[in-house]
Design a protein that fits this description.
The chain has 315 residues and is of the alpha/beta class. It is 31% helix and 23% strand. The chain has 8 helices and 16 strands. The longest helix is centred in the last third of the chain and has 19 residues. The protein is elongated, with a radius of gyration of 24 Å.
Length: 315
């Protein structure tokens, strides 16, 4: 699994747009990484005739199942899509072997994940799938010693930081916010973080001041549980560096319990179904081959399986 980092780990909060002019997959991958878009870089490393793909062919697989580039025909592409989505959500990098049914001639590769695809017209493929994930992004609000210590420690951990609060909204894909202004813009920073849907917010304040500040905001119960005050784990911290350590420890605990914050959430996973003809797991997308049978919607790896199923119904 590749974590994309910068030097220093500071995020440009200005939105950038990728142009649609033709460019190499490798160039596009670098652009996506700079924009903190999670994806899987798929590269064909071995191919057997009559496969339509060749070593060196590559593609990008997004978290919603979209594929840009070329790593084989429709059936091979569907196998890549399914494996890539698993890699993107925690399985890590893998070597995928896509074999036609009954193929015994393709030399084995230890450690590879094997998919037997009965729809393949022939040929076998090995494709390396590398998930490229941005490091967790923490927005730091304030210029106090504790805020500066949080920035320094986040860099040591390999996390990215941004500094747009309280003047503007948090950067896109922010996983946590640390409000450490000691009264300077704290209310505005908290409100902006809540409105942006940031899941984890640390408020650096005494127990008494923190409670008063949160009461003034008139928070809903759902908003209140996202704010941690006093900030950090109780480790007896006294110095700014020790307090920053306790805050980052609590953020790490949150990140590791639910997965690294990114643009790929836990509720936006594409729906998957099983092709009733070949048994392949397919990702349901607007362009996925499908057939309505009564009140049931069936999904297929490609037009071939769909048409075969429909022919069986008609006979």
């Amino acid at each position: 699994m590749t974590a994309v980092t910068g030097t220093p780990h500071t995020v440009d909060t200005h939105a950038r747009t990728v142009d649609t002019h033709p460019r190499t997959v490798d160039t596009h991958a670098r652009e996506l990484a700079a924009q903190r878009v999670p994806f899987v870089h798929a590269r064909v490393v071995r191919a057997q005739a009559p496969s339509s793909a060749h070593p060196g062919d590559e593609a990008i697989v997004y978290g919603d199942g979209r594929i840009e580039g070329f790593v084989g025909g429709v059936c091979a592409e569907e196998s890549v899509r399914t494996a890539a989505l698993g890699a993107l959500r925690g399985d890590g990098p893998l070597l995928l072997r896509v074999l036609p049914e009954g193929d015994e001639d393709f030399p084995d590769t230890p450690g590879a994940q094997v998919v037997v695809n009965p729809c393949l017209s022939g040929g076998a493929l090995e494709i390396f799938l590398e998930p490229v994930l941005p490091p967790p992004l923490i927005e730091i609000a304030g210029r106090t010693p504790i805020a500066e210590a949080c920035v320094a420690l986040a860099d040591v951990l390999g996390y990215a930081t941004a500094r747009s609060l309280p003047e503007g909204p948090p950067a896109e894909h922010t996983g946590a916010v640390v409000v450490a202004g000691h009264g300077r813009g704290d209310t505005e920073s908290l409100r902006a973080a809540l409105d942006a849907g940031v899941p984890h917010i640390e408020l650096v304040a005494s127990r008494r001041r923190g409670a008063a500040l949160l009461d003034e905001l008139g928070l809903t119960e759902a908003e209140r549980v996202r704010i941690h005050s006093p900030a950090g784990l109780d480790i007896g911290a006294r110095t700014p560096a020790e307090i920053a350590l306790s805050i980052l420890a609590e953020i790490v605990e949150s990140v590791r319990s639910v997965g690294a914050p990114s643009s790929v959430g836990h509720d936006d996973r594409p729906v998957q179904a099983v092709d009733p003809v070949c048994g392949m797991t397919v990702t349901v997308r607007p362009d996925t081959s499908h057939l309505a049978v009564g009140e049931e919607e069936l999904w297929f790896c490609g037009p071939g399986c769909r048409d075969r199923y429909a022919a069986g119904l008609a006979s």
